[in-house]
Fold:
Amino acid sequence: MKCPFCETRDTRVIDSRPTEDGHAIRRRRVCDHCGKRFTTYEKVEDVFFMVIKKDGSREAFDRNKVLNGIIKACEKRPVSMAEIEHIVDEIERGLNNMMQKEIESKIIGEVIMEHLKELDEVAYVRFASVYRQFKDVNTFVQEIQKLLDSGKAGK
Structure:
């Protein structure tokens, strides 16, 4: 494994343990050249699938796009990175469990919104406003009213 600090390949594992959810192995490593420590994760490679975009084009699923979208929605909200990463793990695992080679982007967007609705209502509305391309304030009000009617808002 290449050291992220000095880029030497002389690194060794000093500790290994499973992650809390048991889906990966966390490895603490030390660089024999510069002496710095860093962490790597080893996990089973997931099934590769394509995302069918709204315009019909296809691209490989990119976990980082999901992660970045959720981070944006949760900006300045009381949501930890651990919670965000957990949601992304759940979303990715759920999509892989569908065992489909191609998944429509709208399905992915809906899954993300369901998770955000449970995590943080403000993050949910932020994400929904971009994902569903809210056109005006009335659309915001309607979405917030849906939250209020479902009894989820404010909890």
